[in-house]
Write a structure and sequence with these properties.
Layout: H1 2-10, E1 11-18, E2 22-27, E3 31-37, E4 40-43, E5 49-52, H2 54-57, E6 67-70, E7 73-74, E8 77-78, H3 81-96, E9 106-114, H4 120-132, E10 138-142, H5 143-150, E11 161-166, E12 171-177, E13 180-187, H6 191-206, E14 208-209, H7 212-222, E15 233-240, E16 246-252, H8 253-259, H9 261-275, H10 280-289, E17 291-294, H11 303-311, E18 315-317, H12 324-341
Helix pairs in contact: 3-4, 5-12, 6-7, 9-11
């Protein structure tokens, strides 16, 4: 008991939502202290890490030949181990600045949320990268469970709770009861696929090349999954494929919704497949409790209406969908101490 209290006095607890698009970090007693893009800028000649996070994202599409801005996470898992390790080191060290000096004496306990569909090898890679980046004890939690806890679902009740977490690289769908995942599916489709669909649409229809930042802006401003009131239009600037000169075109919300149909249909199909075959008693619970949406993709206009129409169930969007997983890791870190006291 003494050692446990002593460790807590000198050690920080950090929860990490290690996402394909963004990394959020929760520090116990301080809340979410960091929310930055999962981007790293590297000097190709020296292999030196130049910038991480927001500063690196500002370089995307604007770097000279010797500087590369990369996203080391792909589909929710590590695509580049060395760069991910450096990114984790940066985020962990930055998070530790939020705690008192005494809590920097020991390496922090770190809980990392990962997609439910990753392999044991990928799971081990995440743990090893975190430890080399400066973590002490490393705990892994599945993203849908962390998201469900983060949005306040009563996951310990003997009733069905359904969470749909639409991230940058993956969508996690799970039915949870009695602190366990009863049925889950993970599809490697998310916000990045929305952006790519928009990029392809602009190229195919307008012969216009745009970058991921422009595609993201289009998605946020006029993207939708279901017809909404007062649909807007916007001007989009890019490069003409034929002559290579700058060009501006005007696009509508209706055509962007059509462009997003394929990735959004994949998410809907995953939700329906998760419901299909789940225990009848839990399905009955969902008629009353409905589906909770989390993740950045939950902010796409009309996604709740589309799922409501396709499933026949109530659909709610979490209050802070982007923060759900990170908040969930924070709650679960506190539970580690409760478990330790009963060992």
């Amino acid at each position: 008991m003494f050692n446990s209290h002593l460790s807590k006095f000198f050690q920080a607890d950090i929860g990490i939502d290690l996402g394909t698009a963004n990394c959020l970090v929760f520090v116990r007693d301080h809340g979410i202290v960091l929310n930055e893009p999962s981007v790293v800028a590297i000097n190709e000649h020296t292999k030196e890490i130049l910038e991480v996070g927001s500063a690196a994202k500002r370089m995307v599409g604007r770097t000279p030949a010797n500087i590369r801005a990369v996203r080391p996470m792909k589909d929710g898992v590590i695509a580049d181990f060395e760069v991910t390790e450096e990114m984790l080191r940066y985020f962990i060290n930055k998070a530790r600045q939020a705690v008192p000096l005494r809590q920097r004496l020991l390496n922090p306990r770190v809980m990392i949320a990962v997609p439910s569909g990753i392999t044991e090898v990928e799971n081990r890679a995440v743990k090893d990268s975190a430890k080399r980046a400066g973590a002490g004890m490393v705990y892994i939690v599945e993203e849908p469970m962390a998201a469900a806890v983060g949005v306040g679902l009563p996951v310990d009740d003997p009733c069905g709770n359904m969470i749909v977490d639409i991230g940058g690289g993956t969508t996690e769908v799970a039915i949870i009861s009695l602190d366990g995942i009863v049925r889950a599916k993970s599809v490697r489709v998310g916000g990045d696929d929305f952006d790519n669909a928009i990029i392809n649409h602009m190229k195919k229809v307008y012969n216009l090349t745009i970058g991921p930042r422009t595609a993201e802006r289009i998605k946020i401003e006029i993207g939708s999954a279901f017809q909404v009131h007062d649909e807007k239009e916007m001007d989009v600037r890019g490069g003409d494929l034929f002559c290579g000169l700058p060009k501006t075109v005007r696009v509508s919300a209706h055509e962007i919704r059509n462009a997003l149909q394929e990735p959004i249909s994949s998410i809907v199909e995953t939700v329906l497949a998760t419901l299909d075959g789940s225990p009848p008693e839990l399905q009955g619970d969902l008629i009353e409790r409905g589906i909770m949406l989390a993740g950045g993709g939950a902010l796409i206009a009309g996604i709740d209406e589309l799922l409501k129409q396709e499933t026949g169930l109530p659909v709610l969007i979490a209050e802070d969908p982007l923060l759900a997983v990170a908040k969930g890791t924070g709650v679960m870190l506190q539970e580690l101490d409760v478990l330790a006291r009963h060992e």
